[in-house]
Amino acid sequence: MYAEERQQAIATQVKTRGRIVVSEAAEIYDVTTETVRRDLAVLERLGLLHRVHGGAVSTTALTVIEPGLADRHLVAGEQKDRIAHAAMDLIPRHGGSVLLDAGTTTARLAAQLPELPSLTVVTNSVPIAAQLVTAANIDVHVLPGRVRHSTHAAVGPQTVNALRETRVDVAFIGTNALTAEYGLSTPDPDEAAVKSAMIAAGRRVVVLADSAKLGQEQLSRFGTVDQMDVLITDDAADPSLIRRLESLDLEVVIA
């Protein structure tokens, strides 16, 4: 196969499947991984794909545009409700502590917490803090920082520094994207820095992500699969990706 033919085949695969992994392409086309990377560089210059860690994605799969909080509340509402319900099984009982990342799925989880007898909640989300502050059984700790307009989440050095001094039983983390190779990612670097610090603050790390987030990659990576303990997603998730994640010793709960 000539280089031009191989590059056309790679471009077609990325357009059809949305992504390609360097190691898999090297096997398929019987070339070295260095050759595949050169092919991807050529195709990226032509605007046919975006190179990412370990491979490439289609030009429509990678974005730095972040939808607002109100818009995200309208997407996959039923799936997020099921995910939040499943997450309740992982809440520590008898006065434990949790960290709730900002996000629409974690907000749905927060709505169920007043049912518990007692709990300490740490969050960087203004809406979640406001939602829980009237619950007598919830001890709410709000992280400091600059509040982003799009997510209503505190971010920045103050937030990260506060998390370095924080340790909770379970950290519930949201994400804009998740792949086995690249891990967890989000469009905004400030959000990514906070999420990374949240992962470090949890004795156990639980990621809440509806199936639309899986197989996607965003600009800023904040965690890898080996830093996660549990993924809770919905039943529309790609079975092959779930098997790949489970092969990396990640517990996956289908809600």
Describe the structure in your own words.
The chain contains 10 helices and 15 strands. With 255 residues, it is an alpha/beta fold. The protein has a 7-stranded parallel beta sheet with strand order 6-5-4-9-12-14-15, sandwiched between helices. The chain has a 3-stranded antiparallel beta sheet with strand order 1-3-2. The chain has a 3-stranded antiparallel beta sheet with strand order 10-11-13, with helices on one face. Strand 7 and strand 8 (154-155) form a beta hairpin. The longest helix is centred in the N-terminal third of the chain and has 15 residues, at 3-17. The protein is elongated and about 70 Å long.
Helix and strand arrangement:
Blueprint: H1 3-17, E1 19-21, H2 22-29, H3 33-45, E2 50-52, E3 55-57, H4 69-73, H5 77-87, E4 97-100, H6 104-112, E5 119-123, H7 126-132, E6 138-142, E7 146-147, E8 154-155, H8 157-164, E9 168-174, E10 177-179, E11 183-186, H9 189-201, E12 202-208, E13 220-223, E14 230-233, H10 239-247, E15 251-254
Parallel strand pairs: 4-5, 4-9, 5-6, 9-12, 12-14, 14-15
Antiparallel strand pairs: 1-3, 2-3, 7-8, 10-11, 11-13
Helix pairs in contact: 1-3, 2-3, 5-6, 6-7, 8-9
